[in-house]
């Protein structure tokens, strides 16, 4: 395979992986940090552990249409 094809394939796989991460919610903390940076400058964001604790607690309190 040529280098161009491998580079393109790598980019496609990387993009697909980001889509999968978004669907399963794995990138929620990254999105939170981006939101926090834009909307709450000067305030300390939650640490990743505290963020996930609150995220899971919120989902448990309001399950909505989750499958499980």
Automatic annotation (TrEMBL):
Tell me which domain of life the UniProt entry assigns to the organism this sequence originates from: Bacteria
Query: Mind telling me what this protein is named?
Result: YbdD/YjiX family protein
Source organism: Saccharopolyspora hirsuta
